[in-house]
């Protein structure tokens, strides 16, 4: 297959690009929503996507949305999510995707920071102009003007402290150039080349659109003419069925999804031949699981990307390179990389420190609302709090965030490493590892595990299994069997919250 490069040679707004694709391919599928649990579908052609998002845009404009407005989209994965998002960008406004069932206290904190012009939600949100998708008036295209603006977005994050904040694109409204012909557009190019993102692919969207990675890659794909196959809710069976039925070429998954897919009965006998790239990120992937995926798809079709919503930089790696550098997330893409100690001094090669990145393009890449800026060196290197080290060839290896690091008897224990070892047990479905206070050791390693199977292993059997997996100081001193590990829909853990629940402290 010949790789088609993404075009970054001139500026075009998001709305205008949707309109152009609709003119060129009016009857082709743009979006297919796969409903849960019956796998029925709702489909939009490109002509329908353009026309119906125009109607939504006109209705939102009539309710006061325009350049520099904020539209908060509090919906499940749905056709309406796509229509409202595209309509908002056609008006030059900023989209904030928000979890549809976010608890009221956390939602109120986000709303106080966001101050949205309109909230689109199935539930009424008091104190704001809150509309269901059906309540947005449909009006003529002549009632509003297509904005010549870049697609603005902001996403909410609980952060390592548990205090909600917004991570805002620093130039979200009324500034052309993010899509093409600018520094940001050119920064996407190395990522696109690594991931083999190209025009007109079929992209499977497994994750919830209120999370940054599924949201970002889905809507970038739509800009480049992708047919988005969106799962209303992820299930392993549903995802594999879609790969076969729609001949999926591009897909993003978090390691939790990869594990559930790999444990699906008969997964190796399914047809994966269409998949050009399965890439993963957002959490640490156990090396043994990654190897299983490379055995299934071939190393050339498995990629990993490390980055942050703050867009300060990224690192990436494909399977062939990973096999020569197992455990690495790759080398920097579109940025400079340093590993610094607590005094912001360069750490020796191979020594774990804080990961700092500096993007190659000038200007801010994020703005926090509700939190102080991330730590930055005098020469512009920024950290979001992740730990890691580099090898002699400059490959980056991720450890854990400072807040999750367990220091037991003076030794550093990284939870992700212990969780990966636990997940090698065939009856461990999921695992979370935290540190619990201890008067002698400072903290001890505590494992929370979810088990499956008719004959489940005992705690003693798990402890015996782990003796062959890790050094003694990394082994859990205590175990807890849970019905379910409380991950969010993107597969992320809040270890600090789990620890707080068990100690009665504040996360």
From TrEMBL:
It comes from the Bacteria. GO terms for biological process: fatty acid metabolic process. GO terms for molecular function: medium-chain fatty acid-CoA ligase activity. Residues 417-492 form the AMP-binding enzyme C-terminal domain. InterPro entries: AMP-bd_C (IPR025110), AMP-bd_C_sf (IPR045851), AMP-dep_synth/lig_dom (IPR000873), ANL_N_sf (IPR042099). Keywords: Ligase. It comes from Sphaerisporangium rufum. PANTHER family: ACYL-COA SYNTHETASE, MEDIUM-CHAIN ACYL-COA LIGASE ACSF2, MITOCHONDRIAL. Belongs to the ATP-dependent AMP-binding enzyme family. This is Acid-CoA ligase. The keyword Ligase applies. Residues 19-121, 157-366 form the AMP-dependent synthetase/ligase domain.
């Amino acid at each position: 297959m010949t790789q088609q490069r993404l075009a970054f040679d001139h500026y075009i707004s998001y709305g205008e690009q949707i309109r152009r694709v609709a003119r060129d391919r009016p009857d082709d599928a743009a979006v297919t929503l796969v409903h849960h649990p019956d796998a029925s579908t709702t489909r939009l052609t490109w002509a329908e996507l353009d026309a119906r998002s125009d109607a939504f845009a006109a209705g939102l404009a009539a309710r006061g949305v325009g350049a520099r407005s904020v539209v908060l989209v509090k919906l499940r994965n749905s056709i309406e999510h796509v229509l409202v998002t595209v309509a908002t960008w056609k008006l030059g406004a900023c989209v904030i995707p928000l979890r549809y069932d976010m608890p009221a206290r956390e939602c109120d904190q986000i709303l106080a920071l966001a101050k949205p012009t309109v909230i689109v939600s199935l539930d009424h949100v008091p104190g704001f102009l809150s509309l269901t998708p059906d309540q947005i008036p449909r009006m003529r295209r002549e009632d509003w003007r297509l904005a010549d603006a870049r697609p603005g977005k902001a996403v909410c994050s609980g952060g390592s402290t548990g205090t909600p904040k917004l991570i805002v694109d620093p130039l979200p409204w009324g500034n052309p150039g993010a899509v093409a012909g600018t520094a940001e557009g050119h920064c996407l190019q190395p990522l696109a080349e690594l991931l083999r993102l190209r025009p007109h692919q079929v992209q499977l969207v497994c994750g919830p659109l209120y999370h940054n990675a599924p949201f970002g890659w889905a809507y970038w794909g739509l800009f480049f003419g992708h047919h988005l196959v969106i799962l209303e809710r992820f299930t392993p069976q549903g995802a594999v069925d879609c790969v076969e039925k729609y001949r999926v070429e591009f897909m993003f998954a978090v390691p939790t999804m990869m594990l559930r897919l790999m444990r699906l009965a008969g997964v190796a006998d399914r047809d994966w031949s269409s998949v050009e790239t399965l890439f993963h990120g957002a959490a640490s992937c156990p090396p043994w699981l990654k190897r299983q995926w490379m055995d299934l798809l071939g190393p050339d079709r498995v990629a990993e990307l490390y980055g942050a919503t703050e867009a300060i930089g990224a690192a990436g790696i494909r399977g062939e390179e990973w096999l020569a550098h197992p455990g690495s997330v790759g080398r920097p893409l579109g940025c400079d990389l340093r590993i610094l100690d607590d005094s912001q001094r360069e750490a020796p090669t191979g020594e774990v420190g804080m990961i700092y990145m500096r993007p190659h393009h000038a200007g801010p890449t994020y703005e926090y609302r509700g939190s102080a800026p991330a730590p930055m060196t005098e020469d512009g290197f920024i950290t979001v709090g992740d730990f890691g080290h580099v090898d002699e060839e400059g490959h980056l290896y991720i450890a854990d965030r400072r807040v999750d690091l367990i220091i037991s008897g003076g030794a550093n224990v990284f939870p992700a490493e212990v969780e990966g070892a636990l997940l090698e047990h065939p009856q461990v479905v999921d695992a979370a590892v935290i540190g619990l206070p201890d008067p002698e050791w400072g903290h001890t390693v505590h494992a929370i595990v979810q088990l499956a199977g008719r004959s489940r292993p005992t705690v003693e059997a798990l402890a015996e299994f782990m003796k062959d997996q890790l050094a003694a100081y990394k082994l859990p001193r205590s175990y807890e069997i849970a019905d379910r590990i409380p991950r969010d829909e993107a597969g992320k853990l809040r270890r600090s919250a789990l620890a707080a629940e068990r100690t009665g402290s504040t996360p």
